[in-house]
Amino acid sequence: MFVPAHITGFFKIFKDRDFLKTGSTGAGITLDKGVHTTIKPGNGDIYFNNKKIDLSPTREVMDYFNFGGSYDVMHFSDFPLGSGLGTSGGCALGTAHEVFKIIDTYKIYDDNNYNNEAVKIAHIAEVKCGTGLGDVIAQHTKGFVIRKKPGFPINVEKVKINNIDDYYVVVEILGKKETKNIINNPQWIEKINKTSDELLIKLLKNPTLKNFMDLSLYFAKTTGLISDNILEICKDLKFTIGASQAMLGNTVFCICKKEDLDDVLSILKNPIVCKIYE
Ligand SMILES: Nc1ncnc2c1ncn2[C@@H]1O[C@H](COP(=O)(O)OP(=O)(O)O)[C@@H](O)[C@H]1O
Ligand SMILES: CC(C)(COP(=O)(O)O)[C@@H](O)C(=O)O
Questions:
Q1: What is the residue-averaged pLDDT of the chain?
Q2: Signal peptide span per the entry (predicted)?
Q3: Residue in 131, 177, 247 to alter for ligand 1 test, most ligand atoms within 8 A of Cβ
Q4: 34 CB under 6 A from ligand 2?
Q5: Measured from the CB, is residue 8 less than 6 Å from ligand 1?
């Protein structure tokens, strides 16, 4: 199962005793790169790019199904963990889908039921582990996704992108950032939430990629989440549709048209070229 990476530009945090009501509002885009997950008979081990690790959201999904003992989960990811590209969410959602395929060999569930249950299980795993709030819902929806309400029932707007093939998303990963250190910190929550309310309204009024990028950079700067280094890179990339810091990572991302791609690649040191994935 392939689950696309997801870049959040801006978001607001909602915590609730009910994990299904916990989540985030905000906006982001999914990419044609992400994480492929398979499951095979084994000992309950988790592998990430062939390295055995105990990845908490994946473990959470396996435990939900009491799946620990007899299968291994293999994640093959285009991006490292901790880069603000929804990799943990992709691992959780891919695991949930693959487990469903195995446990329901008699097709008791119809595909739509699969989908809904897999998304809920993966979302709960992310929220419980502190590794995400809205990625799974965005990765399930795919494309340019505005999340209007947190958690479930899912309430999102999938924005139609005309001439989607004209756009490139270029990312550069400059380091790691643990999501849980931000979304569980009261000071950060306060900064994030007082900034993001107006942004959602502004984007819904003018749902363009340009406006998304402008609002994302405003969010990254106003909350203080953006690093000085990434802020400088974003200034160098102002000729593009827009550039900002992927939330929550130490990663810069920009959206550009094909005619500007070579100039972007000349500025970034280790660029990864992606497309928007719907
Ligand atoms: N080597 C590792 N072993 C176990 N867990 C890891 C390892 N490297 C990263 N992780 C975990 O992966 C998760 C990454 O989630 P997150 O910070 O949300 O990053 P992302 O933006 O990739 O989703 C964190 O819980 C982190 O502790
Ligand atoms: C921004 C974030 C809270 C974390 O995203 P990541 O670092 O990619 O796990 C995301 O889950 C969201 O709610 O939009």
A1: 95
A2: none
A3: 131
A4: no
A5: no
The reply to whether 125 and 237 lie within a common domain is no
Coil, helix or strand at residue 207:
coil
Output the domain CATH number for residue 245: 3.30.70.890
Q: Considering every ligand atom, which ligand is closest to the CA of 183?
A: 2
> Regarding beta strands 167-175 and 71-77, do their DSSP bridges make them parallel or antiparallel, or are they unpaired?
unpaired
Is 86 close to ligand 2, i.e. is its CB under 6 Å away?
Answer: yes
Structure confidence by residue, pLDDT tens digits, 179-223: 999 999 999 999 999 999 899 999 999 999 999 999 999 999 999
Whether 247 lines ligand 2, by a CB cut-off of 6 Å, is yes
Judgement on whether residues 113 and 131 belong to the same structural domain of the protein = yes
Surface-to-core class of residue 21, CB atoms within 10 Å of its CB (0-12 exposed, 13-18 middle, 19+ buried): middle
pLDDT score of 10: 98
Q: Is the CB of 132 under 6 A from ligand 1?
A: yes
Q: What is the 3-state secondary structure (H, E, C) of 39-98?
A: EEECCCCEEECCEECCCHHHHHHHHHCCCCCCEEEEEEECCCCCCCCCHHHHHHHHHHHH
If asked whether residues 266 and 132 sit together in one domain, one would say no
ipTM of the prediction: 0.98
Q: Are residues 75 and 209 in the same domain?
A: no
Structural domain boundaries enclosing 172: 160-274
Q: How far apart are CA 55 and CA 92, in angstroms?
A: 9
Rounded to 5 degrees, φ, ψ at 63 are -65, -35
Is the predicted pLDDT of residue 261 greater than 80, yes or no?
Answer: yes
- Determine the distance separating the centroid of ligand 1 and the alpha carbon of 88, expressed in angstroms: 6
The CA distance from 191 to 185, in Å, is 10
pLDDT at 113: 61
pTM of the model: 0.96
